[in-house]
Amino acid sequence: MATVAKTPRTSSYTLASAGSGPFLVGFRLFDDDALDVHVNGIRATNFSITTDLSIGYDDNATITFDAALDASDEIQIDGALVPGRDADYLSSDPGMARKLNAELARLWSSVSEISMKVGRTARSLSPLGAFVPVAGRVVVFTADSIEAGPTVDEVENAQAAADSANADALIAVGAAVSAAAAADQVQGVLDSFSYAYLGAKAAEPTLDNEGGPLVIGMLYFNTSVSEMRIYDGITPWISYTASETALAKGNNLSDLLNVVAARANLGLGTAATTPSTNYATAAQGALADLALSATELADFAAGGAGQPRVYGLAIDVSAVTVSAADTYTASEGLSPVSGTLSNYPPSVAAGYTYTNGRFSGTMRFKCSHRMSASGTATLWFYKNGSIAAGPWTNTTTTDVPRTVDVSVAVNDVFEWRHSAVTNASVLSEISVTASDSLIVVLPTLLGSEA
């Protein structure tokens, strides 16, 4: 017989672990789609129902979700039977009793579901007026009616404002607690200071402001002599500023007890009391025993009688300074010179070779290059046997100047090398220029060209 249990046509599960099912429906199912399923309060449709309705109903139907649910997810399964009859039974039908029995069970199941859903709705103990729902507005219950209340947005905004106000209140409480703690801390500092500082007094106090004994470190301001004093426990009160041993900035060190001792402590010796003319100037040299007079410097820079000729040596005297614009030929600054002005193919010739014996710094090497007649010529600049600049190519009979700025050190060897495919490659206007201030080389290290 098709009986109907009095239990509600609903089932619920809380998953202990992740899974997709199957989950037993838990009540009699008459149609394979007569279910209403929610997961965590949200209506779900991503599941399938397994039933056997061969006898008109199934007490062991199950549902299986398309994808696994998470642990602790909540599943709610409710009956959603739609009342109705699919066929009219004839009085002469031999299975009339069986069919009516099944139809009666279906009817009672539908009534059970309706009763369950009615029990979940809002109810009143007194009759209420007619209610017309308004889209987007919440339901409000009054004493004798149900009405459309504020909009959903208004409710959400009110809730957001309440949450914000609650957060502000919490912040205000925290700020108040912090302020109270800070006030307590400041009060403690003030109490400590007021205990240590006794204030302004015309005479030395013998007790603190509360009549207690003095403690080492206490302070007071003596208005009679206008100075701060401190209690050290031995001498009753001493000057906090120690003005009798302090230096006054207005005296410009004239109040030192021993000027000679102070100068010795600073390592000045007699230098602080002797004339500046007793010492070499920066233009004359770093050390007194190597200093040259202004006349000697001028003769030295100009290559006077008995002086070596110096080119590219920077001397810090404006009247005789050798500047970067000065030009020095190979025979004057760098030696020896070798090579030829012209070179015929097919060999590569060293046009000029410089062996640096003096300078340390940066030099500018210059060489003009051309063809004696039609053809192609190539020019390179070498430092210590390796290409430092180039190659440059010239196919004209017009001089083309080439310039190289390169750092030089003593014993470095520099070369201009050139070659031509046809006719002669010609070099001219060979020169070397100081492109910046060179490191000073002492005269004793230079050979004389006088």
Descriptive keywords:
450 residues, four-stranded antiparallel β-sheet, alpha+beta, flat, five-stranded antiparallel β-sheet
Give the SSE layout.
Elements: E1 10-14, E2 23-24, E3 35-39, E4 42-43, E5 47-50, E6 62-65, E7 74-79, H1 96-119, E8 137-141, E9 146-151, H2 152-196, E10 197-201, E11 219-222, E12 227-230, E13 238-239, H3 259-265, H4 294-302, E14 327-328, H5 330-333, E15 342-343, E16 349-355, E17 361-371, E18 377-383, E19 386-394, E20 400-408, E21 413-420, E22 425-434
Parallel strand pairs: 10-11
Antiparallel strand pairs: 1-7, 2-6, 3-4, 3-7, 5-6, 8-9, 11-12, 12-13, 14-22, 15-22, 16-21, 17-20, 17-22, 18-19, 18-21
Explain what you see:
It is flat, with a radius of gyration of 56 Å. Strand 11 and strand 12 form a beta hairpin. The longest helix has 45 residues, at 152-196. Strands 14, 15, 17, 20 and 22 form a 5-stranded antiparallel sheet that branches. 20% of the residues lie in helices and 26% in strands. By secondary structure, the chain is an alpha+beta fold. It has helices spanning 96-119, 152-196, 259-265, 294-302, 330-333; strands at 10-14, 23-24, 35-39, 42-43, 47-50, 62-65, 74-79, 137-141, 146-151, 197-201, 219-222, 227-230, 238-239, 327-328, 342-343, 349-355, 361-371, 377-383, 386-394, 400-408, 413-420, 425-434.
